[in-house]
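@channel sequence for tomorrow's demo:
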Amino acid sequence: MSVVRPLDRYVFTEWVKIFLATAIGFPLLLVVIDLTDHLQKYLDQNLPRADIALSYVYWMPQSLFMAMPAAVLFATVFSIVTFTRHSEITAAKASGISFYRIIAPIMLGAVIAAGLDLVVAEVVPVTDARRSELLQESKVSSGTQRYNFVYAAEYGRVYKAQMLDATAGRMDKFQIERKGNGKDYPSVLISAQGATFKPKTKRWAVEGGSMHIIADTSPNFTISFASMTDQHLTEQPTDLMARPRNPQEMRFRELSRFITALERSGGDANLLRVERALKIAIPITCIVIALFGAPLATSTQRGGTAYGIGVSLATTIIFLLMIQLTKAVGGKGVINPDLAAWLPNAMFAVMGLVLLMRVRT
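structure tokens (generated this afternoon):
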């Protein structure tokens, strides 16, 4: 006997139709709204029209990442509301098929959407960085000095300094950290009294320090030096004055390395820890929101388009408000940052289970 029934294919197909329409429609709507708000500003900056248009193509993954749970919710609510209105759920129950079995294809679709959103989350940092380049967004902070900062560079490297004077080209109490990933690529920690930028060579002379090689399978060893040049330290003083990279511009592992370096230097990483947890929590929301929306959509026998829109919009707005609230609370350290990111999911999961148990099967 086939596990996949004609009813499963029918339910899944109807759900996918609504999901795809919503998943594509929401980002396009956000693009139109954002373009309307910022077009004049971009034109005043004399940005090429082709670059403006391409920047919104690169913005689509970011919009899709946030819109995916809403698309799952809309697809779940609208499909079940339609089945209820047409008495298809009643007919299925009369044939001995429980409500839980009816929504199984929908839950499968939600799991697929969650996996897709996890992939999109890793694409977003690349596309966001490219969009920033096209829009020529300013990255340099005001002033010429910076204190107790952490800078996430390429190749998984993190720079820390007690003070940077961009005009003098000087850093004090300078460190470089590079996390390894095996015996052929060990972790490296360079600690130095300071570093001076040489304009002629466009390189930094790292002065008075030591290099610690931390291997996985062999003893660690340390090399002391009076002065050295790191060929990968190519950032100029003005580059190091750049604003901290937005968490959305870092992949999960990059953000984890940045958080570790920031915490080691005594910085407050609570908000970044919330953002890191949200990179996983938001995709998992696809599953939670389907679990919540499926029984909610059956709460009225007169469900229609207006009801589906009202339920979906209200749930989406409440969920987004909860994310912003818990992000603020977690960022301030009132509760554990990781717990703060997962709290909306936990609350909606509990409510979903309660509603699911109350559904007539």
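heads up for whoever presents: Residues 149 and 159 are 8 Å apart (CA to CA).
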